[in-house]
Write a structure and sequence with these properties.
2 copies of one chain form a homodimer. The first copy, chain A, is built from 22 helices and 6 strands. Chain A has a 3-stranded mixed beta sheet. Chain A has a 3-stranded mixed beta sheet with strand order 4-5-6. Chain A is mostly helical. Chain A has helices at residues 3-14, 18-26, 30-37, 42-51, 54-63, 66-75, 78-87, 90-99, 102-110, 114-124, 131-134, 148-158, 183-188, 195-198, 212-222, 242-260, 275-302, 304-309, 317-340, 349-378, 383-413, 423-445; strands at 140-142, 167-171, 177-182, 206-207, 226-230, 236-241. In chain A, α4 (42-51) crosses α6. The first copy, chain A, has 3 domains: 3-125, MgtE N-terminal fold; 140-241, CBS-domain; 270-445, Tetracycline Repressor, domain 2. The interface between A and B is large, with 108 and 108 residues. Chains A, B: It is found in: Cell membrane; Membrane. Chains A, B: Residues 199-255 form the CBS domain. Chains A, B: The chain crosses the membrane at residues 283-301, 306-324, 357-377, 384-409, 421-441.
């Protein structure tokens, strides 16, 4: 929705032209209505919400942020509330309940039918980030002796409540999953065809305890619109749809970004996370890395006499440290992302290492040459210092690439998250290596005692 | 597919038990067959490919990497080739052609019907990463005076070739998009209902030149399974399906990871990118950052006398630089990712800044206290040096958070990619600031002349 359009709606609300506002709202999408309602004060939010037709109101409700939902729940009657909750898809209702304050949750659960309540509670009990926690229980379940015509009749009758009707699951009496049939296949076959002759019995499925990231990978790999979730006894309990999986993919990528920048992952969007929570997520790794970099400091102390004799040596420390850190981060980022996408396996370690060493030689050579030219111009006559810096630079880049590509793979082998072996950690390690090489070289080439 | 299972298939191929192999292959998914075929040598690849039923062979072909496709194309007859190309969905065919060597492309295009060739050429001409380049032309197009029954008949007749049939588009004679109707809606309405009474006329659509990232955002926001693509005169030319968009999302996240680690984005997966290409992507930013960090070096030279007088000062440089860089990267990563997801807008700059300053104070305080305790134990008696280090640490963290959150937003305002203001760039800038503060403080507190 354009900002202009939103402005117009806000003006209508401001001037209390509710009839015109209602007409305008009916023309637009529920996502846009929700985005418009977020701009309203809490009193107007409820007024606008009440003017929407019931079905649309539920759709809009699912799109609102937790605060607005909570405010609406507190302002409407129990009857209105129960209608909304019953109309929400179970996974949307679960999402909502996870974010609302406990008193509001109690009121919501009080106003649902026992069936819905049971479903919601069941979902709330699955471990966080598991397939069970993101699945929905609304799917089309068919029997194998049904015909295409009977299936259509069943879908027509039961389908409106199902989040996706395009993939139907065939179960026996004990709800064991026997096959899968898409509406496309139903449409392409004659009305009298029995499902057992057209259903695909090789169903790709996941269990309730499967990690959501694995589910996303699977749906991605096989290009599925939805995937069935079964319990430990292979009984169908729910499905996961592609839109939930897209959210999971974004969340997982965000988590990797955060971890790779030395933060604990956060639950909420940045602007909704409290300052205290942000600080809490950031302090642990900063502390660890701060204390680790005292090792690098200790190395500097050890070579005190070297830079006391040739103070110019100190001025190249930032360049060596930064370039080493950056070169290492490049390699570790490529490897971490490659492993997250399943493009790189731990068994590829030698292939990766051989590649990075060659890249390190090329990159190191170019940087060394550029540096040598610059240094010879800037400090003519100090040839041996220039040679020291240039060789250290080359060695730093090659070492950084080697360390940067092996540590994330090592972490994976040890069942740790490779993302912790990203830029900050690699930088700290490479810094120490780089300065050791630099001052050792300086001592030898410039004929000094350490 | 389990490795075990793959092993079994490979053994069958090895022992030339092709009958058993074929039976086993018919039981599994096309994605898994392709993954199995990647392990075979090129001769066996063709043998296995030929034993697959025609429809399955095309599906498997679409999943194979470019090298295997190219090898198969070179080994099969023109008739076999033309059958495959005609059966592929146009967007898969385009994907394939973009990666094959020119001679192979010519052979492929020679063996397609003029219609398919025209379609493919049309797609190949849309700018890279545009909606046009990822769309497919196979969709279900209906007319508004058709009934539900007629629509089903049309879908049954034309639908098999359409990549997704679940969302149907209603067009006038000039192919202008008039509305959209889902198969779910068709199923829920009586057979004699006319489409114009049930179709949704507020179609969410994109133009051919729209950036693919914007398309992904849009489908994500509105939770669409597919989105129509129109040309500049609002005529329907294709659709983009959710599985293509999931690929786009992964690509875009990968690109951000690469840019944020100071690399030019690469086109291919890591293991398929040449060493030379990898080096070429990494050198430019390393050079820029290497030369920028000489500024930090120059600052060190300026304060030469300070660390000549108190050599211990040098040993805290790595800790200050690393902590500053890490603190700044944390902030910039949060802001860059927040903007990529549309959670943070440039207009939120003051909100973000106020948040980061408070976080900076909290984090800086904790790090300073821990540091103070450590230093007082390690260097008893050097109180003023400890105070200098601790105040510098606090100032560095606050400055790093401030710089880290404002620069990416600034880049966005200047229409630059915020991702370039990530860890490496922020680190270089914060390093210089941090050392300036440190040595200035040292000169004042320790009563030295700069």
């Amino acid at each position: 929705m354009e900002n202009e359009e939103k402005e117009k709606l806000l003006n209508l609300a401001e001037e209390k032209k509710y009839r015109q506002l209602k007409e305008a709202l009916l023309e637009i999408n529920e996502v846009d209505i929700a985005s418009f309602m977020e701009e309203l004060d809490s009193e107007k939010t409820v007024i606008v919400f009440r003017m929407l037709p019931k079905a649309l109101a539920t759709d809009v409700f699912a799109e609102l942020p937790a605060e607005s939902q909570s405010h609406i729940i507190n302002s409407i009657t129990d009857k209105e509330l129960s209608e909304i909750v019953e109309d929400l898809y179970v996974d949307d209702a679960v999402d909502m309940l996870e974010e609302l304050p406990a008193t509001v949750v109690r009121r919501v659960l009080k106003n649902t039918t026992p069936d819905t309540r049971k479903l919601i509670n069941q979902f709330l009990n699955y471990p966080e980030n598991s397939a069970g926690s993101i699945m929905t229980a609304e799917y089309v379940g068919l029997k194998k002796n049904m015909t295409v015509e009977q299936s259509f009749a069943y879908i027509r009758h039961h389908g409106v409540d199902s989040e996706t009707i395009y993939t139907c699951y065939v179960m026996d009496e004990k709800r064991h999953l026997e096959g899968v049939v898409t509406v496309k296949e139903l449409l392409m076959n004659a009305y009298e065809t029995r499902l057992e002759t057209i259903m695909d019995t090789h169903v790709i499925k996941v269990t309730t305890t499967e990690d959501q990231e694995a589910v996303a990978d699977m749906m991605n790999r096989y290009g599925l619109l939805c995937i069935p979730v079964v319990d430990s006894e292979d009984r169908l309990v729910g499905i996961i749809t592609v839109d939930d999986v897209m959210e999971v993919m974004e969340e997982e990528a965000t988590e990797d970004f955060e971890k790779m920048a030395a933060m604990l992952p956060s639950e909420k969007p940045y602007l909704k996370t409290s300052v205290f929570q942000l600080a809490k997520n950031r302090i642990p790794w900063l502390l660890i890395l701060m204390l680790s970099s005292t090792i690098t400091g200790a190395i500097l102390v050890k070579y005190e006499t070297a830079f006391a004799a040739v103070p110019l040596l100190v001025s190249f420390i930032p360049m060596l440290m930064d370039t080493g850190g950056n070169s290492g981060s490049q390699s570790s980022t490529m490897v971490i992302r490659g492993m997250a996408l399943g493009e790189i396996e731990p068994s590829d370690v030698l292939k990766v290492l051989w590649k990075e060493i060659r890249v390190g030689f090329m990159v190191g050579f170019v940087l060394a040459v550029v540096n040598f030219i610059r240094l010879m111009i800037q400090y003519p006559g100090n040839t041996m210092i220039c040679v020291t810096v240039v060789i250290s630079m080359f060695a730093t880049v090659v070492a950084a690439k080697t360390i940067g590509c092996t540590l994330p793979i090592g972490a994976k082998v040890l069942k740790l998250d490779p993302a912790i072996m990203a830029s900050p950690m690699i930088t700290t390690i490479v810094d120490a290596v780089s300065l050791m090489v630099y001052f050792n070289l300086a001592c030898h080439l410039l004929d000094m005692a350490a």
